[in-house]
Amino acid sequence: MNGTSFRSDIRYWLRQGNTINHLLFWNIVVFLLLGVVHVVGWISPAAGFIPTFLYEQLSLHSALPAFIIKPWGLFTYMFTHVAIFHIFFNMLNLYWFGNLFRSFLGNHRVLPLYLLGGITGGLVFLLVYNLIYPGLDGTLIGASASVICLLVACATKIPNYEIGLLFLGSIRLKWLALAIVVLDAIAIPDGNTGGIAAHLGGALMGFVYVKLLDNGTDICQPLIWLFNRRVRVEATTRRKRMFKPKKSPLKVVKNGPEENRQLRLDQLLDKINDKGFESLSPEEKAWLKRMSQE
To answer: Locate the DUF6576 domain: which residues (predicted)?
Structure first.
């Protein structure tokens, strides 16, 4: 596969309108960048300070003086990984549970909740670390808090949804989320206290978010509004691609039943992609069910 084909595949992958793809892409890009810089620093002692410098800039610092100097760490840490297994399992879970969340609650909520879960996890990390290790400067990296936030949000919204796990078979999502949270909680005395605190903070945000959403309050709405400019640009581009010149008034062509059904199916699938399955009306859900049975 040549370089042009590879770039084309990446562009196609990112243009699918799936925010999970973009999150995976940027997490992997940052990981690869840090990996390349680490190799360069290992080869050239003169550049050995660069990997440490970048890590210090991208991670979240627990010491308040360091955090005040580098507040952007509250955002950049959730896109930063340095260990291969760390990013592998985080991205695998992001792909699984992020797409599940997207299917039920909509693509437009993915990035806002990813950020809110990461921010909540980071703030809990700051609080816990300063209470237990006052004066020490610990660092936090990784998307775990954001990923667990999406997982718990899914488990709260669709608790009885079953997924298949290797060696365990089918398990309901609520039990998987509960097991992860409990295992994290009982592992606090064994080390990585700050990281586990961040996980629990992300889990709490996922649970609270869905409960508030079910009561009519979407705390992601300010971020959704903030990102609307990008969404509007994508929608405008999509409309341009779908534009067809008007037919001559001298020749009227009516769509048949099959064309009308396909058009409605495409519209409903676009609605699910943008806003999630729950955004469909009971009549639309019933129509889709009938279509799937034909």
So the answer is: 259-293
User: 18: buried, middle or exposed (CB in 10 Å: 19+, 13-18, 0-12)?
Assistant: middle
Contact 98, 20 (CB under 8 A): yes
Task: Calculate the CA 12 to chain-centre distance.
Answer: 19
Return the beta strands (E) in the chain as ranges.
60-61, 139-140, 162-165, 169-172
Domains of the chain by start residue, with CATH: 3-224 (1.20.1540.10), 249-293 (no CATH)
Looking at residue 165, its amino acid is L
Calpha distance 125→110 (Å, rounded): 22
The predicted model scores a pTM of 0.78
Tell me the residue length of the chain: 294
Q: How far is residue 267's CA from residue 43's CA, in Å, rounded to a whole number?
A: 54
Strand-pairing partners, residue 165, are: 169
Count CA within 13 A, CB hemisphere, residue 232. Answer: 6
CB atoms within 10 A of CB 62: 25
Q: How far apart are CA 217 and CA 236, in angstroms?
A: 28
- DSSP 8-state symbol, 163: E
